[in-house]
Amino acid sequence: MAAMEWFTPWFSAPGYEMGRLILQRALAAVYLVAFFSAAMQFRALLGDRGLVPAAAFVRRVSFRASPSLFHWRCGDRVTGACAWAGAVLAAAVVAGAADAVPLWASMVMWALLWILYLSFVNVGQIFYSFGWESLLLEAGFLAIFLGNAETAPPVLTLWLMRWLLFRVEFGAGLIKWRGDECWRKLTCLYYHHETQPMPGPLSWYFHHLPKRLHRVEVAANHVAQLIVPFGLFCPQPVATVAAGLIIVTQLWLVLSGNFSWLNWLTIVLAFAAVDTSALTGTPSYGPTPLWFAVVVCVATALIVVLSYWPARNLLSRTQQMNRSFNSLHLVNTYGAFGSVTRVRQEIVIEGTDEDRITPDTVWREYEFKGKPGNVHRLPRQFAPYHLRLDWQMWFAALSPAYTRGWFEPFISRLLDNDRATLRLLHTNPFPEQPPTHVRALLYRYRFTTREERRETGAWWHRTFVREFLPPVALSGERGDRRPR
């Protein structure tokens, strides 16, 4: 008992109870979205007949290189069951289940969430290669050591959360400052709202803000990402103010586009620096369990050692974005938009049910859920939900190299009217019979001007660039395709 009482004064931070509560419940909500996304999309993208089957991946990659439960079994039923189990568990944590059980059981719940999602990420290949996947895993791993209602928030874990938030923000700021010169000239937002991967319903309006305000936005972004993060390590109330500024800037980004759960998770992490004791008072707790303090100290030592590689990356002139230095995705490096695209190009996929291709052939367009297609369709708000196929289509429009391995199977599934694949899309122009041919065209998209918007009602204007994929049809064997 004496040892446990000795741990309590320096180890515990009861003033952060409300911040921990918000952080844990909101993090569990992000987990819920992530698992729901897997339940809805994993089968079509990585299932037995997926575009890049996970089963084939685990046969050629070792468990050590890519730890995942799916090395033991990787069928659609197993992955689907794991996705829904993760969603149910995350929903239970959101509802407070982790605070209603003993401390050790709470830690097991968070560990299961981390293990389950790690299993998806490590077999997800190109469709799970985004920085926010590693961010969720790293935050989820730290959450194992945040404790629950039985014990005061541990200071060490809160500092680790702040260190993670610092790397997210400062890394993003550095990659911009070192990257595209438009960030230093304060002009990147002349283009970004229009060319970002998946615009939201307010992106058209953001794009048409005065250029002077765009320059102010970029300057404010530099302050928020290169200066404010240092405030997270300052005494209170400076740390809380810094967290508040980060939350405000992230909410601005939420309004301006769709970046999956990146912005929301950054907001969640900021609550690790929020001390609400002045408003809510300081709750009292019993002594910290000795075993829990030891486990947290061991985890802290592990994170400190693993921090060498991302810290070195931050200081490097050849800084990398969104890299994991180990297969468990612990202590990663982050960053976004080191370069900004000036021109938006989109791949438009069309099909026809005619047997022969002639100049008079009628083509009908497939509509995606999130990416621009129909010029009269207002971009939707999907974040924090992640439309994985839509994001890959944005990359594919940048370079055909990004289509390697998945685009041809995708076209084959359209020619086959594959039900799972079609559920990833907004509309299927061939609900009764599959198309005989499918093709892909490349267009340049830009937001309409205010005058064009009033005259046509369109949000986008598009100009044909070239044929991206010539008309193709299924040959004799199922799933095979050949040009026509």
Describe this structure in words.
The structure is a single chain. By secondary structure, this protein is an alpha+beta fold. 49% of the residues lie in helices and 9% in strands. It has helices spanning 2-11, 17-46, 54-60, 76-94, 103-121, 131-143, 155-178, 181-184, 192-195, 203-207, 211-226, 238-256, 262-270, 277-280, 290-306, 308-315, 388-398, 407-415, 419-422, 450-456; strands at residues 344-352, 364-365, 367-368, 425-427, 437-447, 460-474, 481-483. The strands form 2 sheets. The protein has a 5-stranded antiparallel β-sheet with strand order 2-1-5-6-7, with helices on one face. Helix 7 (155-178) packs across helix 11. The longest helix is centred in the first third of the chain and has 30 residues, at 17-46. It is globular, with a radius of gyration of 24 Å. Mean pLDDT is 94; it is low at 476-484.
